[in-house]
User: Which sequence fits this backbone?
């Protein structure tokens, strides 16, 4: 029996496709300080890849006297304001790889815990038709690190997880993608990915093309099939 072929690539947004994590941190600190709290770089790093509702509750714990929804709206507005000024801060090689996948006819989804209005704003700033599907934080049944966002993306694309590759930069995102059954590439940015379960780690997407993704997916699925056959024996 042949291993599944690559049909789709599922992209995380913040920190994977675009380097917006500094924008989120720049929005968090003044908000917390406005309520008399303090916020360290290490605390900010702990929110990388976390769902916005969970992040908002952590900010409430620092003394931010706002509702979860209001905190999310405030942070999203601030990050979108920065994006409007700077444009899309693609991570090295991300735009080129995405364009390579689209040119090859590979389906693509954006799977992010940011709000849909922000995800749509980012996608609208990309100068080509980049994604077939967006699954945002306000679409997910359960947030990362649960597998739901990636499973929802596969369902919307009409593919099975074993036909998909996911690309992530955070431990929470990796756990979500791995639990979905996709083959997962980690591309670290601000936090270590050690122990988070990535099937491979690429230091950067720079120079990567659709051929590299297809090769990774094929090797991963062939190895997995061989392991399953060995267990069956």
Assistant:
């Amino acid at each position: 029996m042949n291993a599944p072929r690559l049909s789709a690539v599922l992209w995380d947004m913040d920190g994977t496709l675009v380097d917006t994590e500094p924008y989120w941190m720049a929005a968090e600190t003044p908000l917390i300080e406005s309520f008399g709290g303090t916020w360290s770089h290490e605390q900010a790093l702990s929110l990388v890849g976390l769902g916005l509702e969970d992040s908002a509750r952590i900010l409430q714990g620092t003394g931010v006297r706002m509702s979860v929804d209001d905190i999310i709206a405030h942070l999203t507005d601030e990050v979108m304001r920065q994006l409007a000024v700077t444009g899309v801060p693609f991570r090295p090689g991300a735009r080129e790889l995405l364009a390579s996948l689209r040119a090859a006819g590979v389906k693509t989804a954006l799977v992010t815990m940011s709000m849909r209005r922000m995800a749509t704003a980012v996608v609208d700033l990309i100068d080509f038709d980049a994604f077939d599907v967006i699954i945002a934080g306000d679409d997910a049944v359960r947030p990362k690190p649960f597998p739901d966002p990636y499973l929802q993306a596969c369902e919307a694309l009409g593919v099975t997880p074993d036909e998909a590759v996911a690309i992530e930069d955070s431990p929470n995102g990796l756990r979500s993608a791995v639990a979905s059954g996709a083959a997962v590439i980690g591309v670290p940015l601000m936090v270590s990915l050690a122990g988070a379960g990535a099937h491979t780690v690429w230091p950067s997407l720079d120079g990567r093309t659709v051929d590299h993704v297809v090769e990774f997916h094929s090797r991963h699925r062939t190895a997995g099939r061989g392991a399953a056959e060995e267990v069956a024996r």
The two ends are 15 Å apart (CA to CA). The chain has a mean pLDDT of 92. The domain at 21-86 is CATH 1.10.150.240 (DNA polymerase; domain 1). The longest helix spans residues 210-232.
